[in-house]
């Protein structure tokens, strides 16, 4: 994962029938094998510079090269689309109504070349005809992330009448979240109730939540809220299509986030035993 942004279904995403032909095995994973990173092995080649600094020529808001080339690579056989898709996710800028854009397939391909992922000498080559599908799946999953965040933010949106915005994001594939680690341990102890499978990626998204009482000077009227997102692969559905599980929640950075998580956990229990 790592490029960004699907339809939501309580954190479970499935690729629709109309998109089946666009998806192949290579499209269902990030260009880098994040599972190796999670197991402590060194992994090179992801087009997203997950832990880079602004001076490395990256956009500090998304840690992606600021000027991804649209030019075709030497030796590239296919003509990949150069048009970028506009997401449904509003940018954190308070001066405009801009939305985040996904990299085009050509930009994705160029980024993988830049990181040495497409190198026939190392056996790390990604097929050119898989790049479009990879971009599609990344966009699909990240749209799903935003829908889950909107659900968490719903009560604040309704209270203040202002939609949240995405300020910045970063991929952290090598940093296993405490929750993911705990679930994996529970899966080893209680395999019938929990899965010990580790997420194949992790993101941290910083969201601007409307808050008239906020003391934020850079973003007046908003407060920063960090979300942690773990990406899991799920079993194929009844039609044989791949599914994904998104574990999206506010980070335990403050008491408000802790209360929101406790309320979300207890809500179905209270509803079942005490009604609405």
From TrEMBL:
Function field: Lyase that catalyzes the covalent linking of the heme group to the cytochrome C apoprotein to produce the mature functional cytochrome.
Keyword Transmembrane: no
InterPro entries with a match to the protein in the record: Holocyt_c/c1_synthase
Lineage of producing organism: Eukaryota, Fungi, Dikarya, Ascomycota, Saccharomycotina
Pfam families in the record: Cyto_heme_lyase
Catalytic activities: holo-[cytochrome c] = apo-[cytochrome c] + heme b
GO molecular function, one term: metal ion binding
Family under the similarity heading: Belongs to the cytochrome c-type heme lyase family.
Keywords, sorted A to Z: Heme, Iron, Lyase, Membrane, Metal-binding, Mitochondrion, Mitochondrion inner membrane
GO cellular component assignments: mitochondrial inner membrane
Record's protein name: Holocytochrome c-type synthase
Main location: mitochondrion
Enzyme Commission number(s) from the entry: 4.4.1.17
Organism: Lachancea nothofagi CBS 11611
Class of the enzyme per the UniProt entry, highest EC level: lyase
Subcellular location as annotated: Mitochondrion inner membrane
């Amino acid at each position: 994962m790592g490029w960004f942004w699907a339809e939501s279904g309580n954190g479970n995403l499935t690729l629709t029938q109309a998109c089946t032909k666009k998806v192949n095995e290579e499209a269902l994973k990030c260009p880098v094998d994040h599972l190796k990173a999670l197991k402590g092995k060194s992994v090179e080649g992801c087009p997203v510079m997950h832990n880079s600094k602004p001076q490395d020529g990256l956009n500090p808001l998304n840690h992606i090269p600021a000027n991804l080339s649209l030019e075709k690579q030497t030796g590239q056989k296919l003509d990949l689309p150069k048009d970028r898709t506009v997401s449904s996710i509003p940018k954190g800028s308070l001066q405009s109504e801009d939305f985040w854009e996904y990299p085009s397939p050509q930009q994705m391909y160029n980024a993988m070349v830049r990181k040495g992922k497409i190198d026939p000498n190392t056996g790390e080559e990604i097929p050119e005809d898989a790049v479009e599908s990879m971009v599609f799946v990344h966009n699909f999953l990240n749209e799903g992330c935003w829908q889950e965040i909107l659900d968490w933010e719903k009560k604040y949106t309704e209270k203040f009448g202002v939609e949240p915005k995405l300020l910045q994001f970063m991929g952290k594939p090598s940093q296993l979240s405490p929750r993911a680690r705990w679930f994996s341990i529970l899966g080893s102890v209680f395999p019938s109730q929990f899965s010990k499978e580790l997420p194949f990626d992790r993101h941290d998204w910083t969201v601007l939540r409307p808050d008239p009482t906020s003391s934020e000077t850079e973003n007046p009227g908003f407060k920063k809220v960090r979300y942690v997102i773990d990406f899991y692969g799920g079993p194929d559905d009844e039609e044989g299509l791949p599914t994904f599980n998104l574990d999206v929640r506010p980070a335990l950075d403050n008491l408000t986030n802790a209360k929101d998580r406790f309320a979300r956990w207890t809500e179905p229990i209270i509803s079942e035993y005490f009604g609405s």
